[in-house]
Design goal:
Elements: E1 10-14, H1 17-20, E2 47-51, E3 57-61, E4 71-72, H2 88-102, E5 106-110, H3 113-116, H4 127-142, E6 146-150, H5 158-164, H6 171-187, E7 193-195, H7 205-209, H8 216-240, E8 245-251, E9 254-257, H9 262-284, H10 291-298, H11 308-314, E10 319-323, E11 327-330, H12 358-372, E12 376-380, H13 398-417, E13 422-428, E14 448-450, E15 462-464, H14 466-476
Parallel strand pairs: 1-5, 1-13, 5-6, 6-7, 7-8, 8-10, 9-11, 10-12, 12-13
Antiparallel strand pairs: 2-3, 2-4, 14-15
Bound molecules: 6-O-phosphono-beta-D-glucopyranose (BG6).
Length: 484
């Protein structure tokens, strides 16, 4: 049996604009909801300062709702990591050259919506924004790196959030499609792989969906609009680019029952269903029958217009992409939380408490391939860790190499032995960037170290870590040589 990854397997790395790009005040870029999210830490969640209707300032936690009549507000003296991030905006040539040196076959990055449409509501796209992304794409193509574009990664223009309540409104579908049309028109001869959205089964609340309320009714109605927007983007994309492939990204860390008690097994099954609901709709093209019970339990009624079901049915996704970082255990007694849950006694955890479970990646690859029988793409996987620079200036991140080796070996088994079709693997945060959940810089993922601390101080100098040469060899041997 061959243990070789398929020819053309797309090895690479992944980033997201608000964690990586910066250039907040440049190129006529408008404000995103994520621009209001502060830094934080493992113990202290990220927050959003809000201005209440009586003019006083208060705070809410990120991923939650904003009280009625309040708006997100910049608080003087507060640090907002997305504004500078690690300044890919000014370092893209240097960064892509480093990716090319590692032999990247693909680079996944996301579009900052407000760079193209500063409020989201303009009629015409902002040329400076389009030019920036075309330059990034051209830089990739110069090195034969296939661009993999996430059109929208966990964010929305703050104008659309504050004026239309974000994805609560069907108007946001039209705004999103304008963004797609501008991107497809400009990049159609250069970009084949697209992702319409990121981690749809994990986004929630104001910063990610632009909704002021985070209750179930608002959330699932907004999600219905996202489903339609994605399906219509697939339709438009296929019409404009017959060879292009469209996916969406889901957070698919494995979910296990805590014990073999039947009620725990059912709880785990239900938790998985709630997570796979989003990809079920978008991969199969219809709301699954089990969603009736989920909506009944949550008190949700989806308002559909005539033709909505037809749109979902006609334009499903071409491939499924997902992030895999960890697994979670679920029991009948615990609340379902796909990024939390009880500790698994069989697994070690990362410094940020995420269970390390390489076998879970093989499990998930098989699970979702069995379910959909369409190509998969592992577009995020990696280890967030504290990296120390040695006295000689080197960074020995053996722990990262170990984590990645173990996960790649399991992916190899899924592809080579279990015959799962997988298009590629993009390691998350290939150049160090800001953490999504905590807003910290010290939670680093990259092959390349960026000199910047949690408050944005530093030279932004890029330094290769030990894992840089290791990944270069992995790619050069198409995954055959994983040795250190
Ligand atoms: C995924 C997101 O959830 O996980 C990324 O798509 C994120 O944006 C990544 O950065 C890792 O999470 P964190 O919180 O460690 O940055």
């Amino acid at each position: 049996m061959s243990t070789k990854f398929p020819d053309g397997f797309l090895w690479g790395g992944a980033t997201a604009d608000f964690q990586y790009e910066g250039g907040f005040n440049e190129g006529k870029r408008g404000t995103l909801t994520t621009d209001y999210v502060t830094d934080g830490s493992y113990e202290q969640p990220r927050q959003i300062t809000i201005k209440l209707s009586d003019g006083t300032l208060s705070t809410v936690q990120n991923r939650t709702s904003l009280p009625e009549g309040s708006v997100a507000w910049f608080h003087e003296g507060q640090y907002y990591p997305s504004h500078q991030a690690v300044d890919f905006y000014h370092h893209y040539q240097e960064d892509i050259a480093l990716m090319a040196e590692m032999g990247f076959k693909t680079f996944r990055f996301s579009i900052c919506w407000t760079r193209i449409f500063p409020t989201g509501d303009e009629e015409c796209a902002n040329e400076e924004g389009l030019k920036f992304y075309e330059d990034v794409v051209d830089e990739c193509l110069k090195y034969n790196i296939e661009p993999l574009i996430t059109i929208c990664h966990d964010e929305i223009p703050s104008y659309l959030a504050d004026t239309y309540d974000g994805w609560s409104s069907r108007h946001t579908i039209d705004c999103y499609l304008k963004l797609c049309e501008a991107l497809f028109t400009r990049l159609k001869s250069k970009v084949k792989y697209w992702l319409t959205f990121n981690e749809l089964n994990a986004v929630r609340g104001y910063s990610m969906m632009g909704t002021h309320s985070a209750d179930n009714q608002t959330h699932y109605q907004a999600m219905h609009h996202v489903f339609l927007a994605s399906a219509l983007a697939v339709k438009m994309g296929h019409e404009m680019m017959p060879d292009a492939m469209f996916g969406t990204m889901y957070a698919l860390s494995a979910i296990y029952p805590a014990t073999c008690k039947p009620s725990d097994i059912r709880a785990a099954y239900n938790a998985r269903r709630q997570s796979l609901f989003f990809s079920d709709v978008m991969m199969r093209g219809y709301y699954p029958s089990y969603s009736e019970k989920i909506f009944k339990d949550k008190g949700v009624t989806i308002k559909k217009e005539v033709g909505d079901d037809e749109i979902l049915r006609l334009y499903p996704l071409d491939y499924l992409s997902f992030s895999y970082y960890r697994s979670t255990i679920v029991s009948a007694e615990t609340e379902i939380d796909i990024m939390g849950g009880d500790a698994n006694p069989y697994l070690e955890t990362t410094p940020w408490g995420w269970p390390i479970d390489p076998e879970g990646l093989r499990y998930v690859l098989n699970e979702v391939y069995d379910r959909y029988q369409k190509p998969l793409f592992v577009v995020e996987n990696g280890l967030g860790a504290v990296d120390e620079i040695g006295e000689d200036g080197t960074i020995n991140d053996d722990y990262r190499i170990d984590y990645l080796t173990d996960h790649i070996m399991e992916m190899q088994k899924a592809i080579c032995e279990d015959k799962v079709e997988c298009l590629g693997y993009t390691m998350w945060g290939c150049i160090d960037l800001v953490s999504l959940s905590t807003g910290e810089m010290k939670k680093r993922y990259g092959f390349v170290y960026v000199d910047m601390d949690d408050k944005g101080n530093g030279t932004l100098k890029r330094t290769k870590k030990k894992s840089f040469d290791w990944y270069k060899k992995v790619i050069a041997t198409n995954g055959e040589d994983l040795s250190k």
